[in-house]
Every structure is written in structure tokens, then in C-alpha cells.
Amino acid sequence: MPQLFIGTSGWAYPSWKPAFYPEKLAQTKFLTYYASQLNTVEVNLTFRQLLKDTTAAKWIAQTPPDFRFTIKAHQVITHIKRLKNAEEFLTRFVSTIEPLSQAGKIGCVLFQLPPNMKADPKLLQEFLTTIPRGLRAAFEFRHESWFADDIFSCLKQHNRALCVAETEERTTPDVVTADFCYYRYRKPEYTPEERQAMLRRMQEHLSNGRDTYAYFKHEETPQGAIYAVDVLKQAGVAPA
């Protein structure tokens, strides 16, 4: 049965009080509360540091069995090596998220490429062969040259999702390239009508048998978390 996972990019924001977190809630209990309202989160800290076993164990203990962590790939892979000769570090990175994987709590790994990195189909093809087959991977391209049929075909060949990112500057073409779908909603505001349109698109994916992941902008305001809760409730999905 395909599942819908909706959350935000991060959770550790005291400024989300009191609109999302209760006023007197200790920050050490943020994740537990967050997981009572939403069923997934996109983790950004793994972009700059490798996940420690102790941190993974804490996250596993603080969330219910059906909760999913989506992990942003480390910057060494995407921004320093820029996918080239990255297999050794990729193996190391994947090993650090193995505790979450063994607990059944990995959603996807998001590979977010730098805005100045132009399309290189051959490099992408080579890199895709190095990702463990059982790991769900999504790619966020931030240079328009990547939005081309040969790139989409390459992703389809390896069953990797095109991350459909919506920002004030650019929106990724909504092209399905895998047996799951991945959305990042980055605008500061979304009207009720826009949120209903999002949900209709997600439900279309679900009806076609695809798990769907969607993450709203975090930043310092709780608006993204409030939107996520609203869409999840509209979908009739209970939190994890």
C-alpha cells in the first residue's frame, strides 16, 4: 500500500513556539512532539557532518516505528567532489545511516547539487551506479541544464527520483522518474488552494502505487510545519 510522508526540513527551532511547539516544551522533546504531528523529516545536519551512532540511536528512540528520516547527502559528495570519484566517501556516508536503515526509518537520501553545477549526463550515469540499490535516492538539480530528457531517462533507468523543488526563483519540472516521488516546497507562503492542488498531485502518485515524500520550508517561522500538518490532515493520514 503506497504511503504519503509529509514533513519539514528540520525540527529544532525554538522560534516555532507557541504556534507549533507548546510554549513550555523543552527542546530535548522537540523531535518526539514533532513525530506526534508529522510522519517524516528531512535532516539537514548530515550535509555538514557525518551522523553519529549515538545520535541515530536517540532519534530512533524518540520516534514511532512508522516515522521516516530523509537524509541530505554530505557536501563532500555533492559540493566538493561534485559526484566525481565519490564512491569511497559515499560508502562511508551510507554506513553512518545504517542504524536508521536497520530500524526501518530511512525514507530517502537527497543529493542536492550546487546551483553552479551544470548537467553532465555521463558523470551522473557513473555516479548512479555507485549508490546501493536498496537505498532510495532523490536528486535536486539547481541548474536548469539538468532539466532535460536524457537526464530524466538516466534517473528512470536507475529508479532514482527527480526532486521537484519549488522556490520563488525556479520550479523543477514535475517529471516522475522512479517508483516514488519527492517534493520540496520552499515558498514562504501557500494558499489553501495551492495546498489542495499539491494534495491532488500526491494522491495521483499514490493511486499509481508510488510512495510520496513532501517537505516544506523550515527556516525560523513555523509556517512550513503548520502547512505540513494541514496537508497531512487533509489527506486523512495519521501522524507516525
Outline the fold blueprint:
Blueprint: E1 4-9, H1 30-37, E2 40-43, H2 53-62, E3 68-72, H3 75-80, H4 87-96, H5 98-102, E4 106-112, H6 121-128, E5 137-140, H7 149-158, E6 161-166, E7 180-185, H8 192-207, E8 211-216, H9 223-234
Parallel strand pairs: 1-2, 1-8, 2-3, 3-4, 4-5, 5-6, 6-7, 7-8
Question: What would your notes on this structure say?
Answer:
The protein is built from nine helices and eight strands. It is α/β, with parallel strands linked by helices. The protein has a single domain (about 5-235), classed as Protein of unknown function UPF0759 (TIM Barrel, Alpha-Beta Barrel). Helix 2 (about 55-60) links the parallel strand 2 (about 40-45) and strand 3. About 40% of the residues are buried.
Give a summary of the structure in a few sentences.
With 240 residues, the protein is an alpha/beta fold. It has one domain: TIM Barrel. Helix content is 35%, strand content 18%.
Supply the CATH class: Alpha Beta
The helix/strand order is EHEHEHHHEHEHEEHEH
State the shape. globular
Major sheet details: 8 strands, parallel, barrel
For the structure shown, list the relevant keywords.
alpha/beta; single chain; 8 strands; eight-stranded parallel β-barrel; about 240 residues; TIM Barrel; about 35% helix
